[in-house]
């Protein structure tokens, strides 16, 4: 595959925008939060992006668990193919 995290992020942004959504860079005063916020079809999803075969740091795992426990939809996406699988949730068949 050989995708970089940046390539995965670009694909996510372009595909979300093509579907009429927003893919916002998420910056926070707290470390370990996900990279992006996707707002699409009335849903808000936090997305942590990684290059293939890369894992979240321990702090990122803690933040993701905290956010999920509070009711947030948080996804880990680590390839261009995973971007497509994620966005298939929004495409009517």
From TrEMBL:
<keyword id="KW-0378">Hydrolase</keyword>
<keyword id="KW-0540">Nuclease</keyword>
<dbReference type="InterPro" id="IPR014883">
    <property type="entry name" value="VRR_NUC"/>
</dbReference>
<dbReference type="GO" id="GO:0016788">
    <property type="term" value="F:hydrolase activity, acting on ester bonds"/>
</dbReference>
<dbReference type="InterPro" id="IPR011856">
    <property type="entry name" value="tRNA_endonuc-like_dom_sf"/>
</dbReference>
<feature type="domain" description="VRR-NUC">
    <location>
        <begin position="3"/>
        <end position="81"/>
    </location>
</feature>
<dbReference type="GO" id="GO:0003676">
    <property type="term" value="F:nucleic acid binding"/>
</dbReference>
<protein>
    <recommendedName>
        <fullName>VRR-NUC domain-containing protein</fullName>
    </recommendedName>
</protein>
<dbReference type="GO" id="GO:0004518">
    <property type="term" value="F:nuclease activity"/>
</dbReference>
């Amino acid at each position: 595959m050989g995708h970089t995290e940046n390539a995965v992020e670009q694909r996510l942004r372009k595909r979300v925008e093509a579907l009429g959504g927003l893919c916002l860079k998420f910056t926070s005063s707290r470390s370990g939060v996900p990279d992006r916020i996707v707002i699409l079809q009335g849903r808000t999803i936090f997305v942590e992006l990684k290059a293939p075969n890369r894992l979240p740091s321990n702090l990122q795992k803690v933040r993701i668990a905290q956010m999920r426990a509070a009711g947030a939809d948080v996804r880990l996406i680590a390839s261009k193919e995973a971007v497509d699988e994620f966005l298939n949730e929004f495409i009517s068949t």
